[in-house]
Amino acid sequence: MPSPRYSFSILAVLVCLTLSTSAADKKTKDAKADEASKPSYELPQPATESLDYTIYQRIRDEGLGHSHVMEYASGLMDGIGPRLTGSPNLKHANEWTRDQLTAMGCSNAHLEDWGEFGMGWRQLNTWVRMSAPDTAVFIAQALPWSPSSHGPINGSAVWVDAKDEKDLEKYKGKLAGKIVFFGEMRDVKPVDKPLFERRDDANLKETTEYPVHVGQRQDFFQEFIKRLEFREKAGAFFAAEHAAGIVVPSRDGRTNGGSGGTIFDDGGGGMGWFTYQREHAEPLPVVVMAIESYGRVYRLLKANAPVTVEMDVETEFTGDHEHGFDTIAEIPGTDPKLKDEVVMVGGHLDSWASATGATDNGAGTVVAMEVMRILNALHVQPRRTIRVGLWTGEEQGEFGSYGYVKQHFGYVPLSTAPDQVKLPDFLRKPAGPVQLKPEQQKISGYFNVDNGSGKIRGIYLQENAAVGPIFQQWMEPLKDLGVNTITMRNTGGTDHEAFDSVGVPGFQFIQDMLDYGSRTHHSNMDTYERLQPDDLAQAAVVEAIFVYDTAMREQMLPRKPLPHPELEEQRKAPLKNVIPGAEAQAQEGQKAAN
Q1: Whether pLDDT at 10 is above 90
Q2: What span, in angstroms and rounded, lies between the C-alpha atoms of 106 and 94?
Q3: Is 159 helix (H, G, I), strand (E, B) or coil?
Q4: Which helix (DSSP H) or strand (DSSP E) does residue 511 occupy?
Q5: Residue 198: what are its φ and ψ, rounded to 5°?
Q6: DSSP-assigned states of every residue in 324-393
Q7: 25-34, 267-276, 486-495: which range is least confident on average?
């Protein structure tokens, strides 16, 4: 029989074990509760992705064997045409995309108002010709939001050489009734390289190399806006001097593509940035002209040969306070635990007005629509909700996507200082930290196409290193389609930036360049014929797979740390007391000066 002391020892050990087990169980339960309360993007990501190769094949079969992307393209580009923000055509496109998304089986297809934009406008007809010293028909179109000439106008041409307000003074009293040619004549170099290019291995390898730039770089947009501020003053000067109209030369494209009758016709060529607002409206009819036509008049005037020009700019304003709308539709999620989470896909629906906006960004729009059609045709049952967003106002400052993100996910407060309010939103300084909304924790990611008609070759990670291994596994079965490149680089200038700005994973795909930067981007050549059917079908397949994989995985995509744009100036400020004695000497020098 055990002794009492021995029995007591056993009892003590059992009590300690029970207490330890209870404490361990409580700690485990607390850890599980803490883990359950976290958004899934904060949890450890699996090393190996669970991929459904059957759905990969089914998406390929539907998207490549039964593509309808070019039917959507013809309906949008041919049937509706150019889609300038605020225009009747864009309203038509919003309604058409909503109805098409409903017809293919999407739920909750609707339009969301992102706010007031400005003036509605459309071009009805524009022609420009020279009547002396010879007759010639010129290639030209009205710049967006140009007023009408109210019938043909006729006047002597004069080239105005002015780079600042002081230069304008020499033209006082000399412009009444004249057609002002305003802008430098650039060299028109031979097109000695292909305008249509695909990315080769060397280009893709370079894309994977992260660019390192130490120190401050000149901000292109700051200089661009400064130039447009002067141009707005110049436009007002020409109107005050009673000029009859303004002609500006078309800019160039990549590899000298801005020639041969191609004109680039966008907000950068006008007499100011905010010309879509009534208070900044163009005061005179203004057209952009093909460089060869502009060059002929320029050389004649430089040789002191009198030139007479006739022009008729027939445009129509359809309202001063037009609102912008995004087209939204969904495939509802089916997992009771995950159906309230969302993965988004999209592109921008608006375009400029000189062509039909095919590659910019009709391509991204119809690819996103085809993604939704493919997934509906396959009757997928996504765990998360798949939502498409077709944005407007992108060309003037990504208004539609930023407006949607602000309403649903969050925003960065912007400075209201007088010198800041006059700038476009994308140049204004932040006034505080990111303000988030509850839905921000419910979106896994956003995927965007907006670099033309070229097929997808990979994806920009937007400096989100954690998502790289995930995408690498998703892309492995797509290498035979040419999808093999991942880069840590940021890329900008389109709607994924709105999501990225509030900490939501937002991605733009790497695409073959084709003739996007050389010939079609914002030009009169941006038509249906520039679209590549095979490339668009491939892009829809790849994007559909990325969207499906995001909707089906257990966790949401991992995120970068929440951005803090309000701290950028502070973080870039020079360090103090780095050079021994430097600050002390500066203080002594200041005292001596006082």
Answers
A1: no
A2: 15
A3: strand
A4: strand 506-511
A5: -110, 155
A6: EEEEEEEE----TTTTT-EEEEEEE----SSS--IIIIIHHHHHHHHHHHHHHHTT---SSEEEEEEE-S
A7: 25-34
Across the chain, mean pLDDT equals: 93
Tokens (6 digits) for 506: 């937002």
CA distance 229 to 155: 27
Name the range with the highest mean pLDDT among 11-25, 414-428, 499-513. Answer: 499-513
**In this prediction, what percent of the chain has a pLDDT beyond 90?**
86
First-residue to last-residue Cα distance in the chain: 99
According to the model, what pLDDT value does residue 212 have? 83
Question: Which amino acid type is present at position 13?
Answer: V
Residues 6+ apart with CB under 8 A from 456: 449, 481, 482, 483, 509, 510, 511, 538, 539, 542, 543
Contact call for residues 87 and 121 (beta carbons, < 8 A): yes
Q: For 117, which DSSP code?
A: E
| Bridge partners (DSSP) listed for residue 329 | 388
List all residues 6 or more positions away from 543 whose beta carbon is below 8 Å from its beta carbon. 345, 367, 368, 371, 447, 449, 456, 509
pTM of the model as a whole: 0.92
Residues whose CB falls within 8 Å of the CB of residue 111, separated by 6 or more in sequence, listed in order: 94, 95, 98, 325, 326, 327, 328
Structure-token pair, residue 427:
């140049």
Least confident span in 36-40, 301-305, 319-323: 36-40
Calpha distance 58→81 (Å, rounded): 33
CA 145 to mean position of chain CA atoms: 21
Among candidate residues 515, 493, 512, the one with its CA nearest the CA of residue 256 = 515
pLDDT of residue 4: 47
Nearest by Cα to 266 from 528, 511, 520, 530: 520
What is the rounded average pLDDT of the residues 90-109?
Answer: 98
Burial (0-12, 13-18, 19+ Cβ within 10 Å), 186 = middle
Nearest CA among 270, 258, 168 for reference residue 227: 270
Tokens of 390: 């077709």
The number of angstroms, rounded, from the C-alpha of 168 to the middle of its chain's C-alpha atoms is 35
Amino acid 214: pLDDT: 73
Helix %, strand %, coil % for the chain, to 5? 40, 20, 40
Report residue 384 as tokens.
């998360």
And the tokens for 285? Answer: 């009819």
Closest CA to 163 of 239, 237, 236, 230: 230
Q: What is the DSSP letter of 516?
A: I
